[in-house]
Design a protein that fits this description.
Leucine-rich Repeat Variant; mainly alpha; 295 residues; 72% helix
């Protein structure tokens, strides 16, 4: 009788032990895994990032304050992709409308929406971006100026020139000068020629480069100076990386605008410059414009 009771107790104990083992080694880890998967999926849903332009624009319109400017930033990146899908007329209308309404929003939202329109290279946004030149906020005005340059909107030449004359902000005047060069309309030549005598060196430089792109050699002496490292070293604010960038742009410009005044500086760079990439660029410019440097 006692043996039978002992056997029953042992069986109960064994069953209890098996249940504990099952609970400890299978059920709890399984539940943890399930809850972990659910939490991960919820997290992915909440933080889901889309590369779809329409979804991003919708987030700009209905998202939270931080989400709107982030979505506008992502939208500008997506539209700047050369492989981006063609935009529908409906999307363009919605983007224009969103930009109009953003006048009272965070300046970041309005700035990135302007950049998104510029990234499309579509002149349909030109008129609304010209309205952006009237903004009180400096950053949103600069974004509108830059985008007008990106879409090469010829009607913006006069408004941008007026802005250059009226503003006393260096960054705005510089962006406007570059934008005139990007637009590339020859009606801007008189405005850019005046900027060759500007008090700010980089405005003079960008005006000369913009003129060269239009086939005007009024700024040739300035470009000649940009080919000289010793001249560039006079400007303490220019670090070695920026110095190289200026040199490369100047060399590229000499390939666009043929002028014999560039030959000596190009020849010197091709033989003596400390940077091999600068040397190679100068050699190519010489070969293109001076028949291997013999003319």
């Amino acid at each position: 009788m006692n043996d039978k009771n002992l056997t029953k107790n042992e069986i109960k104990s064994e069953n209890s032990r098996i249940y504990v083992l099952f609970y400890s080694f299978f059920l709890i880890p399984f539940m943890i895994a399930v809850f972990g998967a659910v939490f991960f999926l919820l997290f992915k849903f909440v933080t889901y990032e889309t590369n779809n332009a329409e979804d991003l624009l919708n987030q700009v319109k209905v998202g939270s304050a931080s989400k709107r400017w982030q979505s506008a930033f992502e939208l500008a990146k997506v539209l700047n992709n050369p492989d981006a899908e063609p935009l529908s007329d409906s999307f363009k209308d919605q983007l224009t409308s969103a930009y109009e309404r953003s006048i009272h929003d965070d300046p970041l939202v309005r700035s990135y929406l302007a950049m998104a329109m510029g990234a499309t290279k579509d002149s349909i946004f030109g008129d609304i971006l010209i309205e952006g030149l009237k903004d009180e906020n400096l950053e949103t005005r600069i974004a509108a100026i830059q985008s007008l340059g990106m879409i090469k909107f010829k009607k913006a030449v006069n408004p941008i020139n007026s802005l250059i004359k009226d503003t006393d902000t260096h960054s705005e005047r510089l962006t406007a000068t570059i934008a005139l060069g990007m637009i590339g309309d020859k009606s801007a030549i008189p405005f850019l020629t005046k900027l060759l005598n500007d008090d700010e060196a980089n405005i003079r430089w960008d005006a000369a480069i913009a003129l060269a792109k239009m086939g005007d050699n009024s700024g040739a002496p300035i470009i000649e100076g940009l080919l000289d490292r010793q001249y560039l070293k006079q400007f303490k604010q220019i670090d070695p990386i920026e110095e190289k960038r200026v040199l490369m742009i100047a060399i590229k410009t000499t390939s666009i605008l043929f002028d014999k005044r560039f030959k000596d500086e190009l020849s010197s760079l091709s033989k003596n410059d400390q940077d091999l990439s600068v040397r190679n660029a100068a050699i190519k410019a010489l070969e293109k414009n001076y028949n291997n440097g013999t003319n």
